[in-house]
Amino acid sequence: MSAKALPVLMYHHVSPEPGLVTISPQHFRAQMHAVARAGYRTVTAQQLQQFLAGGKLPAKSVLITFDDGYLDNWVYAHPVLKETGLSATLFTITGWIGDGPMRPYAGQQADLPITPSHKVCMNAVREQRHDDVMMRWSEIEAAQRAGTFEFHSHTHTHTRWDKLFPVVAERRQRLAEDLALSRETLNARLGYVSRHLCWPQGYFDTDYIAEAQAAGFDHLYTTQPGTVLPQGDSLRLPRIVTKDKPARWLLNRLWLYRSPTLSRLYSQRKRVSV
Q1: What tens digit of pLDDT does each residue of 215-271 get?
Q2: Cα gap 108→88, rounded to integer Å
Q3: Alpha-carbon 268 to chain mean position
Q4: Pick from 176, 183, 182: nearest CA to 209
Q5: Quick one: pLDDT at residue 270?
Q6: H/E/C letters for each residue in 80-138?
Q7: CA distance 190 to 188
Q8: What CATH number has the domain bearing residue 257?
Q9: Residue 1 lies in a domain
Q10: Quick check: is 87 in a domain?
Q11: CA 30 to chain centre
Q12: Is residue 2 a part of any domain in this protein?
């Protein structure tokens, strides 16, 4: 049986520090083991692209995505993906990633680095202490080699240009420069850059879409609820917000979002309730 819809999960932090957009290592591990035991197959961004173009996927397919590239993705998510044989797509803020040796991750016989809350991470970024809270290129390269993560663009600076520049032409120019830097950095560091881009803070408009397409991105990931359908709109790809809840919650959501009809009804209800 082939997939009628492809759920795309959205994660940010996997950390023992609770808070916004954060899942505990215990819940994440339980969720991933449950997904694997239930027979789900994780797919790549390229396979999503082929699915949109009419290609077939197994009925129990799912794309796991992470936004930003926080250190805790390496410390806690990477080893779980490795032990379960699952993989994820990480949308990387290329300008926030620095150099340095790999740090320990869970399961290794070493003291683990501190992985602070989202609020603390944002404060560190504002203070230019990116290395305290973000992955390093050495860790990204190791995760890529291990097959736990593949890496795509989340822009270079994660800036909301629409908030900074009221003149459309100027913010479009700034966005174009941001996207070009992201592509240049991914090419230089990893040897490739894809057609896949995730919008910072989920914001986009028609001007943003036009600039993304001009830069070579035509698979654009949003924070809008829903599921990816065959021949769907690659410029407005929906995702499912994950929560710090037991594995059964996630399995129920995957069952729902594998159905185009149930997903549409549930997503409409969520939009109405917001």
Answers
A1: 999 999 999 999 999 999 999 999 999 999 999 999 999 999 999 998 988 887 766
A2: 21
A3: 23
A4: 176
A5: 64
A6: HHHHHCCCEEEEECHHHCECCCCCCCCCCCCCCCCCCCHHHHHHHHHCCCHHHCECEHH
A7: 6
A8: 3.20.20.370
A9: no
A10: yes
A11: 19
A12: no
